[in-house]
Amino acid sequence: MQLASYKATRPGLQGLFNRLIRWRFSGPYSHSEVVFEPGDGVDAWMPDGSCAADANGAMWCASSVAMERLPAWSRYRAGKLGGVRFKRIVLEPAKWDVLAVGRSWAFDAAWYARNCEGHPYSWRLIAKLASWLVSFKVSTQTTCSQFCAAALGVPESDAWRFDPCTLPAAVAALHDL
Q: Are 44 and 20 within 8 A, CB to CB?
C-alpha cells in the first residue's frame, strides 16, 4: 500500500485550486490518495475485485475529491459531485510522489474506504483550514488528506488536522518509514 501526493497542476479551475492549496499550506502537494497494490490482500474490496494494475498501469486509489462525479458503482451518492471514491490512476512520477506505507495497514484502509465510499466532500473543513473564523465539527464529510490520514491509522478525531503537505511526513513518522 502507498500514499500518493499530487505535485502537478491540472488545467483550468482545478489548476487554480492546486496552486491555492500549495500556497496556503506552503508545500509541494495539493491532493492525497491511498494506493492499493497487488499483494495487499484486499482484492475483494476493490470495485473490480483486483488490486492489479490495468492495461495502462493504473492502480486503484481511494480518496475524497471535490470536483469529480462519484462513479456509478458507488454505494452512496452515485453520480453526485464530490466525495469519497475509488478510482484507477496512473501514478506518473512527474505528477505524483509516492510513499510506501506497507501491507500491514492495507486491510484497515480498504475497509475504511469501502465504508466511507460516497461520503460528501467537506467544503466546511476547507474553509476552516483557510480561515480561523470558520468553526468545524467532525462529520462524515471529508477532504482528501483527512480521508487518507484516517485510512492510514490516524484517529478520525485528529485526521482533519492534516493537509496534503503535512500528511506525507506524518504518515512516515506514524509508520516509522
A: no
Per DSSP, the residues of 25-77 read TTSS-SEEEEEE-TTSS-GGGSTTS--S--TT--EEEEEEEEEEEPPTT-SSS
Cα distances from 37 to residues 23, 136, 147, 161, in angstroms, run 31, 34, 18, 27
Grid cell, residue 128, equals 476552516
State the residue range of the domain holding 73: 2-174
The pLDDT of residue 43: 97
Residues 173 and 177: their CA atoms lie apart, in Å, by 6
Extract the C-alpha cell encoding 52: 492489479
| Residue position matching grid coordinates 483550514 | 129
Mean pLDDT by 10 residues, the chain (177 residues): 96 89 92 96 95 97 92 87 94 97 90 92 65 52 88 86 92 74
Query: Structural domain tally of the chain?
Result: 1
Quote the CA–CA distance of 146 and 174 in Å, as a whole number. 15
Alpha-carbon 156 to chain mean position: 14
Contact 57, 90 (CB under 8 A): yes
CA distance 118 to 75: 7
Q: What is this structure's pTM?
A: 0.88
How far out from the chain centre does Cα 45 lie?
16
